[in-house]
Amino acid sequence: MKLLLDMYKGAPKEQRDKVQLMAAEKKARAEVDDLKQRIKTMEEKERQESKKLADEEALKKLKSAEEKMQELQKSLAATKQEEDALLSEMEVTGQAFEDMQEQNVRLLQQLREKDDANFKLMSERIKSNQIHKLLREEKDVLADQVMTLQTQVDAQNQVVRKLEEKERILQNTLATLEKEVNMRAQAMEMHKRKAVESSQLANDLKFHQDDIQRQATHLEELIKEKSAAVEKEQFKHRRTQEECSSLRRKLDRQKKYDFFENADEVLMEEIKTYKQKLTCPCCNTRKKDAVLTKCFHVFCFECVKTRYDTRQRKCPKCNAAFGVNDFHRLYM
Fold first, then answer.
1. pTM, full prediction
2. What is the rounded average pLDDT of the residues 90-119?
3. Using the 8-state DSSP alphabet, how is residue 321 labeled?
4. Contact in structure between 43 and 133 (CB atoms under 8 Å)
């Protein structure tokens, strides 16, 4: 792993060197191109000067230009040598980089193979541990089952003993029951005789019962007739009470007419009373427009709603409790 890390750390530095060499090569080529262009310009200038000037100064300039050309050619040769050296170095570094990559691939392959082997070993170990745990659990379960079966066997042995004791007791009881059956058979014969006598008495009682039923039906008819008469009298009494109440109202009106001189005052008084009956007794301002279905007392809807919202859910007159669906609007 350390070798791999060192190789990964070294690879980017070589790439950087390679990039730097490529950049230096580009710069050298650019300088060579500039020098060639300068040489061309110088040659053109020399030609022009040779045509125009045939003096010594022109010759001197030509000499100096030739000297410069020689210097430039020397520098060109030096740059070409440097370029060749750089190219050779780049080839060497590229070959080394490829070798490093191949080595890295081999090492990575080896690491993957080792990881796969480790993973297989770990999975096999986990499986073996799981199988071991399952076997232990099965062993514990079987031990528990054996213990429960032993307890069940002991319990069944106790039950068998108890059943044997019960069988002995039942045999004793059977003997006593046989004796009782004989006694009861004798008693049954006695009871049969008594039953014959009681049947004769029952026939006599049936005749007597028929007579009593006839008398009862006659009495029921009489009671029905009397109840019908009572209902008629009650109806008459109600009618008389209604007539009395109507006469009392007329008398009260007549008293009011006698007490007040004008009929308008009496009418105003009656209107006041009717208005009081129509206004809500809680707030004495709004009209009655809601009824409580529990007690059928009438109030304004706002008072009932405020009482329900403030949890005072009782009728103001009779204190009967009411709920959400127990008050409704009235449209008069």
1. 0.26
2. 84
3. B
4. no
